[in-house]
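Hi R.,

As promised, here are both runs. First protein below:
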Amino acid sequence: SDHFDAARKKADEWFKHMGRGGSSEEKSLKQVCEAYVAHLAGEGRESASKDAAGRFKRWIYSNAKLASTSIQKLTQKQIDDWRKNLRATLAIPQDKEKAATRPRAEGSINRDMTTLRAALNLALENGDVTSDHAWKAKLKPIENADGRRDMYLDQAERRKLIEKASVDLAPFLKALCLLPLRPGAVAALNAGHFDKQLSSLTIGKDKAGGIRKISLPPATAAFFAEQAKGKLPTTPLFARADGKRWDKDAWKEPVKKAANAAGLPVAVTAYTLRHSTIPDLVNNGLPTLTVAQLSGTSVAMIEKHYGHLQQRQAAAALAMLSL
């Protein structure tokens, strides 16, 4: 009978799973995602753990049927449908009162897929499932989603942005203009992270994961010394007017207003400053490895997004060899 054939097929699949060293405990996709979040936290990657938890809550747990699916029974179609849903969802506007009209950025979709793929691969590594057939092809990243960083502000434009910023935002933006850091890394700085005696700044665990120390030139050190003056070591080095630490939800609108007042493009964000300082360092001939270490990213990422600048430098250097 059909019931008997179905039961036998299910049994065959189970024994194959066990024969490959699979776990005897069936886990749902939600449990697999939760295990990945816990795994990140266990490695001390609190920021990444929190980010993954947020993505899973929005894109996995909200789909009860998908979330409850056994990882061993997950199909390509389910993953494909999930991916299509990601691409069909509109981006949430910064002004929550406005209706969503813009498609989500492909880079953002890639990050959602990368997080799920990492959770599924961990489940594979742990023996919760013995094949990546369901997701290997369906969770391939969208190509060229994070292309070259083309939004750039020159130094005059950066100064103008700072001048038009509110009193509490201006120092935060100036820090982003002085160092090629992510806004989140600057927001996470405490007064104690600056060492006045050594003129150095310790950057905590960033998106790249590692703690690093940066030696500051005199003018930059003086700026950070002024920000740290009179503050307890554990208090934010850069705080909002209400004393709270900056975060992406707090700086978005103020940066937008400052950019508008400065007559700058509407696409300017806090991240634009990072994507403006890194090209300056590359153009000034700083070795790619040093730029990567300062900015808390990999050499590969620097070459991918800013390699065209190095190519121009190389062309100019070759021109000097002309006879």
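And here is the second one, sequence first, then its structure tokens:
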Amino acid sequence: MTLRSCVVIPGYNAMKNIGRLVRQIKQLGLDAVVVDDGSTDQTAAVATEAGALVISHVKNRGKGL
């Protein structure tokens, strides 16, 4: 059995930086999971294009919800 690690990244309107961050994480050999917290920009699309698995909330839920 091979263990795998991932980095979970919460994001809200983070399209300017999320792609670069995901690519850097993938270069380290890790998987990236982005939790898009109801962004109104293209955060989810940019993260997906960079290679992340994206989980999207329909509306912003903030911390701890």
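A quick note on the second one: The beta strands are 6-11, 31-37, 53-57. Let me know what you think.

Best,
J.
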